[in-house]
Amino acid sequence: MFAAIVGPGVALGVALGVTFAAGTAHGEEPGLVSEPPRGTYVRVHGSTLADPVGPQAADIPPHILFLQRCSGGLDLTPGPNDSIGNTSSIPTGPITLPEYPFGNESWQEVVAQTRDVFAPFNIDVTDVDPGNVPHDEAVVCGDGSGVAPGAGGVAPFDCGIIMNPITFTFPEVLGNNPRLIAEVIGQEAAHAWGLDHELLCEDPMTYLSGCGQKSFQDIDAECGEFEARPCDCGIPLQNSYQHILGAFGPRIPDVDGPIVTITAPLSGSTFEAGDNFTVIVDIIDDSIVDEAELHFNGMPGMIDNLEPWGWQINDVEAGLYTLEVTAIDEYGNAGLSIPVSILVGDAAADGTAGDDEADDVLDGGTASDGGDTDSAGADEDPKGCGCRSTATQGPWFAAMPLLLLGLRRRRTHARRPR
Fold first, then answer.
1. What is the DSSP letter of 253?
2. What is the value of pTM for the model shown?
3. From CA 173, how far away is CA 380, in angstroms rounded?
4. Which end of the chain is more exposed for a tag (fewer CB within 10 A), N or C?
């Protein structure tokens, strides 16, 4: 099952038909089978094209690739390729695409794998809609009905970088395989930047399989699906890596640590012994955040490596507590939150702190700094919060792995606004 290539003057209906001959003819040859089918492209003319930035460009904003999961359904109408206006040149009529079918965990893995595919380049892969900011939109929904039946994906193609294109990847055709979905997203996005198919199994621009995970290769490769043919834009060979590097530049290494904020509980809050509470953390960074670690009264403790960041703590004992969170990104840069101090029960009566210390905590400080620490957080959690220990260290913190309620996690790659 392979979607055919669209050449100049080929009708759309024919171009998006399924060709069985290619798979049959090469079914016994290693590396020449693409199951399920990967994507194709549709030639368009008269697109608005962008100038490449060049590989030596510095201090430029990243090119934005928005992964659209179609939550609640996505309505698209025929028209010029415009990710901001939700119009596409590929559908022949108005369509509504269903949302990504394999759930949140699978979706977050798709996002992570797509970021890996584009890791060498100055491309910001996000699943948060950029709105009216120029961006590519990779629609990752449906089975191709009304767009490209039988194909794994489809994209507009005009031998250049199309401004604000919408490309399509069909997870219901590809199956719940996040890496394959990410590689097809990569192929379709690159079609909209003027890249053709390649006879290079290790590259996302190929139809070939059986050589492991694919990444954009710094190799001059022949164009074609299952046999060599001239490249569609008149060049003898194609180098996908250099093409994308020339279009958007290299990835700019991150040298700044994440910005970490404990949003709940609020510093200075008081709670009853035996309460439950959730530590909620907001982390933003220019690159991938690998992990966050909760510190209790200066002692390292629980580690979380998935978003939403946080920990559920149950059945807390009376005491004074200072909470801090450190976060580390993929480059090893660390960020530390402003400490949050809370009081649980009658700390003075329990012998864990004097009245003056308790007052300091309620003023937003810690039991050790005389109340000079700034508070951090957001609106107070209506469910309350607390901790279980003495003011220095205690059983609730040591037992935290047993107290987690299994909060739903999803992989994060949070980014600081530019």
1. P
2. 0.64
3. 46
4. C
Which CATH number is correct for 259-403, 3.40.250.10, 2.60.40.10, 3.90.1640.30, 3.40.50.300? 2.60.40.10
pLDDT in tens, 106-134: 999 999 999 999 999 999 999 999 999 99
Break the chain into its structural domains and give their ranges. Answer: 2-248, 259-403
Using the predicted structure, report yes or no on whether residue 188 has a pLDDT greater than 70. yes
Reading the block at residue 13, the tokens are 């209906």
DSSP character string of 187-243: HHHHHTTT---BS-TTSTTBS--SS-S----SS-B-EESSSEE--TTS-S-B-HHHH
How does DSSP assign 163-180, residue by residue?
SS-EEEE-HHHH-S-HHH
Torsion over CA: 56, 41, 183, 283 (sign): positive
Q: Tell me how far apart the alpha carbons of residues 267 and 374 are, in angstroms, rounded to a whole number.
A: 8
Both tokens of 70, joined, read: 């179609």
| Structure tokens that stand for 218 in this block | 């710094």
Cα–Cα distance, 311 to 276 (Å, whole number):
11
* Torsion of Cα atoms, 144 then 137 then 127 then 146, to 10°: -20
Amino acid at 254: D
* Helix and strand element counts for the chain (H, E): 9, 24
Residues 6+ apart with CB under 8 A from 28: none
Burial zone of 57 (CB within 10 Å; 0-12 exposed, 13-18 middle, 19+ buried):
middle
Separation of CA 97 from chain center: 21
User: 């368009």: which residue's tokens?
Assistant: 44
Contact (CB, 8 A) for 197 and 225: yes
Phi-psi region of 86 (alpha: psi -120 to 50; beta: other; left: phi over 0): left
Instruction: Identify any residues that bridge with 66 across adjacent strands, giving them in sequence order.
Output: 126, 137
Q: Which two tokens stand for residue 263?
A: 């949003």
